Amino acid sequence: MTDYVIDAPQIVELPIVETDDAFPVRRIYCIGRNYAAHAIEMGHDPDREPPFFFQKNANNLDPSGDFPYPPHSSDVHHEAEMYVALKSGGTNIAVEDALNHVYGYGLSLDMTRRDLQGEMKKMGRPWEIGKAFERSAPCGPIHPASAIGHPSDGHLTLTVNGQMRQEGDLNQMIWKVPEMIAYLSEYFELAAGDVIQSGTPSGVGPVERGDVMVMRVEGLGELTVKVI
């Protein structure tokens, strides 16, 4: 048995609906501008072009229901997304085979320090400081595909303090789940434990301490997160 020189990092786990089992997380991939209306509101062309991805860290996922407002930002935005949890992976996965690698689906928020992200964009630098900060991915439990199938549509909403902010449908994604998996596998070796955040519809906007965000997706339940 290996003796580590420091304590080994804790495995990040996501709960699974109606079970005491847990899903261990390896990596998080996030697709950008995957809904046409969101691409437009962010100042980009909504035409279908090759997808792009950025990454969060596994320990950014947080199922606690609280989102601590992060430091060094005065413009933190919500982005409501369905996530996809993989049970297996590989390279050069065919689109028609991609869903065989999916364990399940859940609700998540890609919280963003928009002001810091904007500064990085202007300087042509990576986005991590705006995207991959602590607890930046509040999330709900996984719904196994064996129980719910593979949702290709479903009404998606996000309210803040009861007021509608985001509304769309999973069928509005420019790049569908099988296509995302296939494309990613051309550039990375995907593996069991990988999580993909599938993009957000339009209506992203700022939150303040004390706000309560409620995300709903038809067939995937509800996620409530308080900004603290």
Shape: globular
Q: What is the ordering of alpha helices and beta strands?
A: EEEHEEEEEEEHHEEHEEHEEEE
Helix content: 10-25%
Give the name of the CATH architecture: Alpha-Beta Complex
Structural class: alpha+beta
Note the quaternary state here: single chain
| CATH-defined fold name | Fumarylacetoacetate hydrolase, domain 2
Q: Record the strand order, biggest sheet.
A: 4-3-15-8-9-12
Q: How is the main sheet built?
A: 6 strands, mixed
Uncertain segments are: none
Share in β-strands: 25-35%
CATH class: Alpha Beta
Secondary structure tally: strands: 18
For the record, give the distance between the C-alpha atoms at the N and C termini, rounded to a whole number. Answer: 42 Å
Mean pLDDT: 94
If helices are DSSP runs of H or I spanning 4 or more residues, what is the number of helices?
5
Number of domains: 1
Layout: helices, strands, pairs:
Elements: E1 13-15, E2 22-24, E3 28-31, H1 36-41, E4 53-56, E5 61-62, E6 66-67, E7 76-78, E8 80-86, E9 102-109, E10 112-113, H2 114-123, H3 128-131, E11 137-138, E12 143-144, H4 145-148, E13 155-160, E14 163-169, H5 177-187, E15 195-197, E16 205-206, E17 212-217, E18 221-227
Parallel strand pairs: 3-15, 5-11, 6-18
Antiparallel strand pairs: 1-2, 3-4, 7-10, 7-16, 8-9, 8-15, 9-12, 13-14, 13-17, 17-18
